[in-house]
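Tutorial handout. Part one gives the primary structure; part two gives the three-dimensional structure as tokens.
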Amino acid sequence: MKLRNLFICIGLMLAMAGCKKDLQNPHIPPGDTTVIQQPVPYTVVENFENGSKTAYAIANVQLSTGLWSFNDALIGSLAADVKDGNKAVRLRAGDITMKFDVKGLKQISIKHAKYGNDAASTWQLMMSTDSGATFTQLGTDIAENSTSLVTDSFKVTTTAKVRFQIRKLGTTRINIDDITFKGLGDPGIIVGPPDTGGSDTTGNTGTAAPDRGVIAGTDAQPATGDNSNILLGNPSDAQPAIVMANNYLIDQKYYEESYNSTRGTPNWVSWHLDATNITNATARLDNFAGFNGLPTGFYEVESNSYSGSGFDRGHNCPSADRTSSVNANSATFLMTNMIPQAPQNNQQTWANLENYLREQVVAGNEVYIIMGSYGTGGTGSNGSVSTITSGHVTVPSNVWKVAVVVPTGDGDVNRITATTRVIAVNTPNINTINADWKQYRVTVRDIEKATGYNLLSNLPQAVQDAVETKKDNL
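Part two.
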């Protein structure tokens, strides 16, 4: 069976795996050592499998690629709907319109067919370069007379960011499926469903969910070598020893962490992110649960432990970074992966940073990420507190992240150089935080000084000295 969910492939990268991706600009004078990163091809597919709309009335629909407006259109799953998967758009006499822009686009392809026994009809592809203020037709009218899905492709020549509208002519119905965007560089598309929502918040006081562990599937990261979760180092030299209860190493297969039993939260969580992790083979599961693998004597935080606290159950390794399977997504909802995070910090600032890093993956990169927290005392929706859960869970004062961005390839440690992009962010855990994560960029050394950790310790010292002392400014 074909993959029915959003997939991301990095086309030409397969032929270039393991090669250096920094190429010298021919326009730079001889002797100048400046390097530039060549834009990498991307392919993003919207297949409508994650959306839901059962009526023709105009409404916005959240899909894997972003928000779309459906006007006299719905998402159909009947036998008469011609589809590649379980769902397709059923468009009658209106239009479907993107409410977001795509950058670097070179081609858009659309699968389409007649719906059921409806008569032949016509539709148009419209394009906007001014964020939807105006639309002009791209290509010619498309005659819809096929009873099976056919594909039409349209070349995009503008360098501006674009969005599209599929406009139906006449009143007979058609199906639209698998819209494929191909381009170069960062498409600016947030891949996957939003990673925060009502389930992160803790207003309810429901019964705790049953505890569970992690089931590792074939999509789990390798234990060692390229793509392993702590390839770049164990920042606090955590060990899986009971005597190290406040620096206890847990391999959760889809990420690794140093757990602090006294604080009831991770010290840090480390994971690898690439295109195979964000296929949306599963939706966000929201199955928060306590972790049953903690040693005897460790306090076990439950799914409802944050209830009424004014703080979100803030993921360290995000749900949307692990959508390749139910096992992967479930692993991110263990409470040992959570911190009490101010709602605005979690739902805006950190969500924006997480989305940005997934965009880098779509643009042809892989990312090694370490996230942690430190200090005592944060400000949630109910005010400032130092602990919750009767003192069993410490509310951190600061939340930080370090992300090492490298083009997709092999031999990762050796490919990280003094010019590799490293993003370090340190935010206060408060509810009045700015949504722009870029305002909180620091150096890796700043975070090391605040935490006492040795980050990126598996890199050569000269490389550490270069990348850890620079503040990202892209």
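Part three, for discussion. Residues 343-362 form the longest helix (20 residues). The longest strand covers residues 88-98.
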